[in-house]
Amino acid sequence: MLAKSEQAVPRLEFFESIDSTNLALERADRSALPELTAFVAASQTAGQGRLGRAWVSEPGSSISLSLLLRPTAQEEKGWLTLMMATAVRATVTYFAPESEPKIKWPNDVLVSEKKISGILAKAVGNDVILGVGINLKSQQGAPENATALDALGSKASFDDVLFELLTQFRARYGKFQSDAGWAITQTAEEFRQHSSTLGTQVMALLPSGDQIRGTATDIDPQGNLVIQADSKHVISAADIIHLRN
Ligand code: BT5
User: Fold this and answer.
1) 130: enclosing H helix or E strand
2) Which one of 112, 162, 234, 244 is least enclosed by Cβ atoms within 10 Å?
3) The pLDDT value given to residue 244
4) 116-125 b/e with 16+ CB inside 10 Å = b?
């Protein structure tokens, strides 16, 4: 079924339905698995978002993928979420060339402000489990501001989209493993070019409950978001709400 995608990674485990590909990879005996093992599901019953939120993945509607990574540049592994976002953006552009997908810091890919993909990274020891969901079709239970490849005019198959995504990510991650500094510069540049966040008025909801309103001006060398309010704030984790300019 996934003839192409199986060629793109050293090992691919496919599940018709599972609770969560991220959780499954976390439970697995990872020492027996090669780097870039892919756990892939056609549906999840307990898909995970950030901060305990849910990710909806109904049968036949989306791809759920988790990759096992062993980054050598441990200090820089926070960049992997944005790196995956750039790979998703390229994949959506490949299948829907007119769609102009944008990356919303830190972990979403949007088309016309609607979410087509979300990313969830988890560090477990020195491993990183990098999960990504990408919508192929609209699905019940997803929020109104969700979109999918078919709504953008693409009828690409599960295998074709997964293959492209794996290929796009591997090209970037291979560079990260051989020269992290260079790969980070590239990721930051790609993000700046295709960000829906930079240059806009935002409200950042911090994990502490605090809020910051201001202009998102850039990302710093660690991938943190820089917000100019009364003073300059550097934010490593937050939910970002785009305010009308
Ligand atoms: C995310 O969290 O966007 C991370 C999603 C990661 C999903 C992948 S699938 C493979 C792997 N295995 C898992 O169990 N998870 C990963 P966050 O930024 O917290 O956004 C969650 C919010 O996105 C929800 O509260 C909804 O508002 C919205 N949402 C849920 N399902 C959606 C969907 N299918 N399409 C668009 N938006 C959705």
Assistant:
1) strand 127-135
2) 244
3) 72
4) bbbbbbeeee
57 Cα to the center of ligand 1, angstroms: 9
Q: What does the pLDDT read at residue 1?
A: 83
Q: What pLDDT was estimated at residue 217?
A: 97
Name residues whose C-beta falls within 8 Å of residue 105's C-beta, 6 or more positions apart in sequence: 82, 191, 195, 197, 198, 216, 219, 225, 240
CB proximity list for 33: less than 8 A, separation 6 or greater: 11, 68
Q: Which two tokens stand for residue 224?
A: 């943190």
* Whole-number pLDDT of residue 93: 98
Please report the pLDDT score of residue 154 as a whole number. Answer: 97
Query: Which candidate, 168, 229, 225, 170, places its Cα nearest to that of 195?
Result: 225
User: What is residue 141's predicted lDDT score, i.e. its pLDDT?
Assistant: 92
C-beta neighbour count of 48 within 10 angstroms: 22
Q: Percentage of residues in the chain with pLDDT exceeding 90? A: 98
Give me ligand 1 centre to Cα 54, in Å.
6
Which residues of the chain fall short of a pLDDT of 70? 245
